[in-house]
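Folding Query — how this chain folds
Tokens — whole-number codes for backbone shape
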Amino acid sequence: MNRVQIREALKQQFDILVVGGGITGAGIARDASMRGLRTAVIEMRDLAFGTSSRSSKLVHGGLRYLEHAEFALVFESVSERRILMDIAPHLVTAQGFLFPVFKDSRRSLFEINVGMWLYDGLSLFRSPKIHTSLSKTKLKEQEPALRQKGLKGAPLYYDCATDDARLTLETALDAQNYGAVIATYTRVLSFIKEDSRIVGVRVRDEISGEEFDIHAQSVVNATGPWSDRIRELSQDGIKKRLRPTKGIHIVIPTEKLHLNNAVVCFHPKDGRVLFAIPWGDR
């Protein structure tokens, strides 16, 4: 559909209107439309414009959460990883991770290996591959860029890598295939209310500048870091719910840091977890 046809399609009464075209909004729309609900998605820019195209490109089970005994969270994550491997094998592929252990590491090689067996167990041993333990000699063959001084060995375990923007796009396209109406460059201006209940939104087409209303039984705020801004359109003086965090990605050519696997690192001063991740020719 072109933009005129999309606007016409948005004039119907929807069961669910999703605000936000990231992976969360696209996923909600796909689920809802597959259940037969009349569904629409509006996005103020392009699909996956925000966080959903600026991630670490991983589908992982959250190994670090084991340290905090978040077993339920890890089980949920590895289960979702398995589902994505099954339904999108062309987008979600195995990625090897090395967890180097040095003499001064805060966890011993034995403790890390116990954690790896627990990680594989929580996935019901359906990880892309079961972890293995590499000696210092094998590590030098696998990752010659690793510091050798004090190196004791490293488990090699497996999570998954993905093209996050394309995963979002294909999720949205599948929602559209089941009948969802998707409108990009469509900004929410205000909410439409009846007896204090939200029954729709006033939007502006950012391409043409035209404003119009969309009506729905339920409106879902799936705008990620913009969630509080959308909530403020509904009510003045609301208390903010988000405490945003920041993830930083530094992209360099692979010839400056050649890696065969992703490598888990710790910042030498404050101990923060860092990842060196292969990504195409970067």
The helical segments are 3-9, 23-34, 71-87, 109-122, 136-142, 164-177, 227-234. The first strand starts at residue 13 and ends at 19. The first helix runs from residue 3 to 9.
